[in-house]
Amino acid sequence: MGRILAIDYGKKRTGLAVTDPLKIIASPLDTVRTHDLIPFLTDYHQQEDIEQFVIGMPKDLMNKDTDSTASVRSFITLLQKKFPQHKIHQVDERFTSKMAKSAMLSGGMKKSDRRKKENVDKLSATIILQSFLESGI
User: Fold this and answer.
1) Minimal CB count within 10 Å: which of 89, 92, 135, 136?
2) Domain range for 127
3) Does the pLDDT of residue 112 top 80, yes or no?
4) Which CDD domains does this UniProt record tie to the protein (predicted)?
5) CATH number at residue 87
């Protein structure tokens, strides 16, 4: 059984999360520099069976595109070319960063670790993935 990999795409860094092979649990995977993302995904795909991707789509409170939406759409096009056999789902990513920061605080993470944007990015990807799993799509 293949895993589902979630992507919280950013211009500098991208957070990644992945399911277990049974697609029950979403776990943080890593945060990578965005310009290293496709090579990272290619290497990871060779090690693990990735069945589909979930990517956070940035929208504002009025459900309109943000400044980041165009770059995410461009990345989706690139991802489709690189992995044409994989389904790509888009998930609303509004509030995931705030939810990630709140989860780190309530989970007792040290302040120095909460300040690391890499931790927020991969936890945001995990929230995106968990949201997708709960939607039952």
Assistant:
1) 136
2) 3-135
3) no
4) YqgF
5) 3.30.420.140
CA-to-CA distance for 34 and 116, rounded, in angstroms?
16
Largest interatomic CA distance in the chain = 42
**Alpha carbon of residue 133 to chain centroid:** 13
User: How many angstroms separate the CA atoms of 13 and 10, rounded?
Assistant: 5
Q: What is the dihedral sign for C-alpha 64, 32, 19, 106?
A: negative
What does the alpha-carbon distance between residue 11 and residue 105 come to, in Å, rounded to a whole number? 25
Supply φ then ψ for residue 103, to 5 degrees: -65, -40
Taking the C-alpha atoms of residue 68 and residue 18, their distance in angstroms, rounded to an integer, is 23
Q: Name the one residue in this structure whose structure tokens are 């290497």.
A: 43
Q: How many domains does the chain have?
A: 1
For residue 120, pLDDT over 90 is answered with no
Any idea how long the chain is? 137
For β-strands 3-8 and 87-92, DSSP reports them as unpaired
26-35, 66-75, 123-132 — which one is most confidently predicted on average? Answer: 26-35
Across all residues in the chain, what is the average pLDDT? 83
